[in-house]
């Protein structure tokens, strides 16, 4: 049995890929968002309906509205907003940060991330699976890299607005925001689970939940 298991693992090894999304099999496949995705891709819009406009996206031109509880706004350029990315294994975000604003700790289950600071002064940090924290304050033109799935954040530590462009090796990286994932679910995670997790009593859990709408 063990030998069979080893043979199966050995045969599958070449297919255990480090790329997040599968390679494209066609030149393009503009997503037909009215259909449901199968695996990671959407079906294609009929080629006869495709125009130049399908391949260009101006959704990252405008500054996002940072009047949010975190003083930040992430504007996605992924397959759901820019269907030309379907099947390409790529996407980008624009992250706007008010002074002191933060893109709170989160992770992307399907992608690594790189980013470049466009304006402002930004503290970028992430934590490894071994609980090591890496961070640096970046200024315009400086880049960062976040390995796939690791928890990371960006915080504006300057006195002016900041903006970052981030990029992903997935058309739909997914985002797990730690605070809302634990304290803003529907229905909510039972109090006793959260109070035991954080070793606090349930009044603290309720107080945090009240901020995240759960
Ligand atoms: C930044 O971390 C982003 O996910 O765009
Ligand atoms: Mn991110």
Question: Describe it for me?
Answer:
The protein is of the alpha+beta class and 214 residues long. It folds into 2 domains: 21-183, Jelly Rolls, CATH 2.60.120.10; 184-214, no CATH class. It has 4 helices and 10 strands. The protein has helices spanning 2-12, 178-183, 191-198, 202-212, and strands spanning 72-77, 91-97, 102-107, 113-119, 122-127, 133-138, 143-146, 151-156, 162-168, 176-177. A 5-stranded antiparallel sheet has the order 1-2-9-4-7, with no helix packed on it. It has a 5-stranded antiparallel sheet with strand order 6-5-8-3-10. A hairpin with a 5-residue loop joins strand 5 and strand 6. The radius of gyration is 20 Å and the shape is globular. Residues 8-17 have low confidence and may be disordered. The site of glyoxylic acid (GLV) has 8 residues, from strand 2 and strand 8. The site of manganese (II) ion has 4 residues, from loops. Belongs to the germin family. Residues 1-19 form the signal peptide. This is Germin-like protein.
């Amino acid at each position: 049995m063990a030998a069979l298991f080893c043979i199966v693992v050995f045969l599958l090894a070449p297919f255990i890929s480090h790329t997040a999304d599968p390679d494209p099999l066609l030149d393009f496949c503009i997503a037909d968002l009215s259909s449901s995705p199968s695996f990671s891709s959407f079906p294609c819009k009929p080629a006869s309906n495709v125009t130049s406009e399908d391949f260009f996206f101006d959704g990252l031109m405008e500054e996002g509205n940072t009047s949010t509880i975190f003083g930040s706004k992430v504007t996605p350029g992924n397959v759901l907003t820019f269907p030309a990315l379907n099947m390409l294994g790529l996407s980008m975000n624009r992250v706007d940060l008010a002074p002191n604003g933060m893109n709170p700790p989160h992770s992307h289950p399907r992608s690594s991330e790189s980013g470049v600071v466009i304006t402002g002064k930004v503290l970028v940090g992430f934590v490894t699976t071994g609980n090591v924290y890496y961070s640096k304050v970046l200024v315009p033109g400086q880049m960062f890299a976040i390995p796939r799935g690791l928890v990371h954040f960006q915080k504006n530590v300057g006195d002016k607005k900041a903006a970052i462009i981030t990029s992903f090796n997935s058309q739909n990286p997914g985002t797990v925001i730690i605070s809302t994932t634990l304290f803003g679910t529907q229905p909510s995670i039972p109090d006793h689970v959260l109070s035991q997790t954080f070793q606090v009593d349930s009044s603290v859990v309720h107080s945090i939940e009240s901020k995240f709408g759960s």
